[in-house]
Amino acid sequence: MTQAYSIGTPGQSWGDKEKALWRQNQQIKRSYHDEVVTKINALSSDFEVVQYGKLDYFEGQYPLFAFKSQPWCDAKPTVLVTGGVHGYETSGVQGALRFAATQAKQYAKHFNLLIAPCVSPWGYETINRWNPLALDPNRSFYPNSPAGESAALMSLVANSTGTLTAHIDLHETTETDNSEFRPALAARDGTEHSNWDIPDGFYLVGDSENPCDAMQQAIIEAVAKVTHIAPADEQGRLIGAPTSQFGVINYPTKSLGLCTGFSDARFNTTTEVYPDSPQVDAENCILAQVEAVTSALDFILNQLKAGDE
């Protein structure tokens, strides 16, 4: 069923007036500084903390931070972990921070780790998918991006490393996708979208041009020990996309401007946690994100070792 939206005229894309009205309706609901920046600062003795940009919005200034593991060594493979590309997806942010706090040190022996835990801090504070300009950062990873969040992350990666071995992007799929964000998208673009069934459980989104099937399977098997994996619907789909294997769908990440598409990493995946499930709580969602990162790194490390033998 399609849900109408309170802003705009059906069938007509938004202009500046509608975007301004949408922005006025957004409210700060939590603190990026208290919930994210303080945790980053607490880990400054274990990592090099890099401020890789600053978003200057009417609502305030948002410094952008990333961790770099130490010592950084050009001979090591480099892995990018990103969270909060969609700021409202809480366990992506907190999962990246928890990985940094509890697991990253052991993996830094084998990898250069670049961790950007909250790519969209305004979205985190307002619990939003878009930035204040009504742009989706996770559809904006391409040259000359109009989204400052996306442009800053791409610049960070370009200035930090040559080639990424892996990119793990932490996300959620929530009930608000149907109640707020998809209706808003349809209104903004002057189109009509039907709601999709929200998968109850964890799943992965791979790149259709580089699906990394074996790695995705390894992650699903590991995460299944922490939380439940989303079953496909009656058509064998998750959020409208056909499954490539249990718990996995593939998207053309580069053409869609998705975060994992810009990095050209050999191994890449996007996690999707369902925080609204009655079977989970916030802590379980964070643990699922951490398990996804560590199981991916374990798989990649084994693949790299096998290649050296």
Automatic annotation (TrEMBL):
Gene3D superfamilies: Zn peptidases. It comes from the Bacteria. Residues 28-309 form the Peptidase M14 domain. The keyword Magnesium does not apply. InterPro entries: AstE_AspA_cat, Peptidase_M14. Pfam families: AstE_AspA_cat. PROSITE patterns: PEPTIDASE_M14. Its cofactor is Zn(2+). The keyword Metal-binding applies. Keywords: Hydrolase, Metal-binding, Zinc. Belongs to the peptidase M14 family. This is Peptidase.
